[in-house]
Specification:
mainly beta; 14-stranded antiparallel beta barrel; two-stranded antiparallel sheet; 22 strands; 53% strand
Amino acid sequence: MLMHGPRRGVLFAVGACLAAWMSGVPLLGSGFSATEPSVKAMGLGGAFAARADDPTAGFYNPGALALVKKGKLTVGLVPVSLNESQYQGLPPGIGAGTAAEQEQDILFRPHAFALLPLSPKLKLGIGAYTPFGFKNEWADPGQFAGRYISTSSELETYDVNTNLAVQLTPSFGIGFGAIYRTSRLTMGRRLGANNPADGELVDVGSFGIESEWEYGFGWDVGFLNKIGDRFSWGISYRSPIETDSAGAGRLTQVLTGNAQFDALNRATLPYDTDLPISTTLQFPATATFAVGFAPSEKSWIEVDVTQTAWSDFEGLSVVFPTEPSFSQDIQGPWEDALSYKLGIQIGLGKDINVRLGYGFEETPVPDASLGPFFPDSERSIFSAGIGRDWLDIGFQLIAPDSRTTLTNADNLNGVYSGNTYLLGISITKK
């Protein structure tokens, strides 16, 4: 029997999203994924793809945009973060008996989302946010055992995401769109050489490496299906994006105290010169399955399962075409990872909602890749938030498990630990 109209469109949308989700593409795991680009979702532990009732649906589930009745604008800052990370070296290897900690830093990540009704059943969503990113800076880099691997690292990314969403039935919406991403990688490390006076390895240079801002394109799709007034479910998918970057690395001399050795290094090494570099950043595909229901008129419970295709990330190489001996392979390959998120919202009257959430995220980083450039581990996320129709405030504690590696590819074994605290605020205008 042939089907026509909305029913056929619904089945096509479900099939397309299921195909994307089941094609081996994961949901959102840990790795260098940034924190939630929505303060409301932040308070719910990130469980938002089955509700997504504001313009930030463009990130979580573009199909939900179709079921939001009025145009809205949301702007916010997510998060204000304070990082606490430590390293304790273990034998065997170059870090045995040493310890280090990262500089504490505050990061400000803004976001803005707009929902524009083009007709009662057609909506346009536009969002700008940070989907991936991290920053690590090891204190006292001259004494850090991992300084020849990394003394600092930072990844910055920004997305502009445009979605078109269609309400196929009163309870079913599908959305799809394009993603423009720009990214930049910066890092630092030391260069070592054997001092001829005693044969000891000493620092002779400090690298500052910075790629140019480069861009790539991707796409997203999702649907949301409401069943009655108290149940909804949905699936969303975001494609992988790859950016190829050029840039420069600059080597600054570190004096050893041996004048003759320093002069030899000055004559033979390319200090104080911008050396060309190239690198490729591979951002993974993600897919999310979400289910939510309302036990009562003023409450909501949602569970999201997200898998991230971190196996798309085959590693990071920083290549010096004119100085091949300076080239470096970092972090990879990685493995796919799952995350599980639970969110609860309770209405207290007078348009005030309290939110609680919990998330657990697997790490995609195998033991051999665990290192100072980007230490990562399985982590729990504890969330709380409060909101009204125009204001949302969210808090998260990200608590990674202490992570030990005894098989680091660079012979830097040890234990990494630390916590991150996040505070976000956003305002929505109808």
